[in-house]
Amino acid sequence: MNMEKKILWSLVAALAAVLMVSCGNGDNLPKEGSVNDYEYIFTVTAEKGEMHIFYTFDTDAKEILWSEEHRPIANKEKTFTNIKEGETKTYTFRIKEAKRVSVKGEVVAPNSMGTKGSYQFEERLNGKKARDKKEAIELEHNGVTQSFEFTSSSL
């Protein structure tokens, strides 16, 4: 009987240790409404034709830094990039100290030839990869657009 109690108590102690470790890891996850640093990374490829891409952020961040022009951009400022046929470019937006982030984008074919390609979106939250998405782009002629929108994963 004494041996059974020792085994039981050692199992209880082991279970308590496991619970303490696993519950403690929840502190590393961002909480809703907390202030975080984000990186929104877009890798865009134009396989056929050229494409114009517009990005607009809506955020309460202290600062948005854009890798393309090496400058801060204002909240709700519409930014523009151009990708020529055969090019792949990566654009990084660093969003500092934000509770919420939303980005809306639009891909436009600037000429009658249309465009075909893809983009890869990656969100990094406090330096760690939070999610990613890849999507094809195919616009048959100018005047046709393709839109995308991403909202911070911590909401």
Give me the side-by-side strand order of the main sheet.
4-3-6-1-8-9
What is the SS-derived class?
mainly beta
Average pLDDT figure: 82
What would you call the quaternary organization? Answer: single chain
Total beta strands: 10
What is the end-to-end distance?
53 Å
- Determine Rg (CA atoms, Å): 23 Å
- The structural domain count equals 1
Q: Could you characterize what this model shows?
A:
The structure is a single chain. The model is unreliable at 21-29 (pLDDT under 50). A 6-stranded antiparallel beta sheet has the order 4-3-6-1-8-9, with no helix packed on it. The chain has a 4-stranded antiparallel beta sheet with strand order 5-2-7-10, with no helix packed on it. It has 155 residues and is mainly beta. The protein has one helix at residues 2-24; strands spanning 36-48, 51-59, 63-66, 71-73, 78-83, 88-98, 101-108, 115-125, 128-139, 145-151. The protein has a single domain (36-151), classed as Lipoxygenase-1 (Sandwich), CATH 2.60.60.60. The longest helix has 23 residues, at 2-24. A hairpin with a 4-residue loop joins strand 3 (63-66) and strand 4.
What are the salient characteristics of this protein?
single chain; 155 residues; mainly beta; Lipoxygenase-1; 6-stranded antiparallel beta sheet; 10 strands; 54% strand
